[in-house]
Amino acid sequence: MEKINLWTKNFIALVCSNALLFGGFHILLPTLPLYAAANGATGAEIGIITGVFGFSAIFIRLFTDLGVSTVGKKNCLYLGLGISVFCTIGYALFNSVNEMIALRVLHGFGFGLTTTFSAVIAADIIPASRRGEGIGYFGLGSTAAMALAPAAGVLLITDYGFVPMFLIAALASGLAILGTKLCTVPKFVPDEKKSVVNISLLDKLFEKGTGIPALLTMLFGISYGSINTFIAMLAHEAQIPNAGYFFIVGTLCVFISRPIGGRIFDSKGAAWIILPGAVLLFAALLVLIQTTTLTMLLSAAVLYGLGGGFLLPALMTWMLNLVRPSRRSGASATFYNMLDVGTSAGAIGLGAIAGDVGFINMYKYSAGAMVLFLILFILQWLLKPKKQAVVEVEENMD
């Protein structure tokens, strides 16, 4: 059988647009707290400035269905990117604490729209038979941004100051708009089987039929987010130098694992990639608990990169495959909502625990989240095997 082409003009344009979007966002991750502190924000205020972003992203995703039916997926993506450009420039112009909080709320709206609709458009244009592989490649751009953009942001403010850094971040989001313009999106077909009247808040937060993968995504976010957030603190506590190499090694392993994992998902099914991915991430956490040298830290980075590279696109693809094409925007919103809930709540809760037991011992609790992940995944797979077959959906793309 002839293999359907994945690397179309539309797919390449969307991959580049997604990479630029995350590049503009991740430049701000390490630099915005520094900017807020330089403008007189206290530690508590910096926490609010940083944390309110995720909650506003979750809030705006409650209205993705309204956005699709009103203006369409591509226009929603344009709106999110436009908000991101405006807010990134706005940080340079409005630097009081209240102004930055307001901008972060608005920026969260933009990020919630862009992440949701970029992913769902990708799912629409990727051939169904290669969706797992395609989602894996789709995420590589954001993975590269996560590795390179934070370092670039720190370098920019060190050599040139905050304003040039904000302009570069805004330029990245602006170029993402151009990439989106080059992508042709399949026409939206309303789903007559699902009424849009009287949809409950619960249905807006969690797309029907995605309960188990949504819960697993939250547990994954707790453990995965704890590594991204606190690894530098662990290295400092263990007196390990050059901890930045952790992310370089981890990112390389993500690049290796994502294409492989996508092909396995498409050919074998979700269990063949989610189960080993969870075991690898759990092993990474166990190594971190015992880490005393840079070699051990980098060994954990390998396991972290391979496990996360397997799990993140697999959980998203599984969730997207469980719904009809017209419901993929809801499934995509659910995925990012649960990921944001896991990473945000995990960072707050695990940070509080670390204050009592230290950052090294904190990872025992993070590992506990992956133990629960494995138990739930194995139980649902054994008890409901028929539910896990990929839903054969009509290819009447939205």
Q: What does this molecule look like?
A:
The protein has 16 helices and no strands. It is mainly α and 398 residues long. It has 2 domains: 1-188, MFS general substrate transporter like domains (Growth Hormone, Chain: A); 199-386, Growth Hormone, Chain: A (Up-down Bundle), CATH 1.20.1250.20. It is globular, with a radius of gyration of 20 Å. The protein starts with 8 loop residues before the first helix and ends in a 15-residue tail after the last helix. Keywords: Membrane, Transmembrane, Transmembrane helix, Transport. It is found in: Cell membrane. GO terms for molecular function: transmembrane transporter activity.
SSE inventory with pairings:
Elements: H1 9-26, H2 28-38, H3 43-60, H4 64-70, H5 73-93, H6 97-125, H7 131-138, H8 140-159, H9 162-181, H10 201-205, H11 211-237, H12 245-268, H13 271-290, H14 294-321, H15 328-357, H16 359-383
Helix pairs in contact: 1-6, 1-8, 1-9, 2-3, 2-8, 3-6, 3-15, 5-6, 5-9, 6-15, 7-12, 7-14, 8-9, 8-12, 11-13, 11-14, 11-15, 11-16, 12-14, 13-14, 13-16, 14-15, 15-16
- CATH topology value of the largest domain: Growth Hormone, Chain: A
Query: Any guess at the CATH architecture of the largest domain?
Result: Up-down Bundle
Order of helices and strands: HHHHHHHHHHHHHHHH
Q: CATH top level of the largest domain?
A: Mainly Alpha
Distance between the termini: 27 Å
Count of individual helical segments: 16
Number of domains: 2
The radius of gyration over CA amounts to 20 Å
What oligomeric state best describes the polypeptide chains here? Answer: single chain
| Residue fraction in strands | under 5%
Mean pLDDT: 82
Poorly predicted ranges (pLDDT <50, ≥5 residues)? 192-197, 386-398
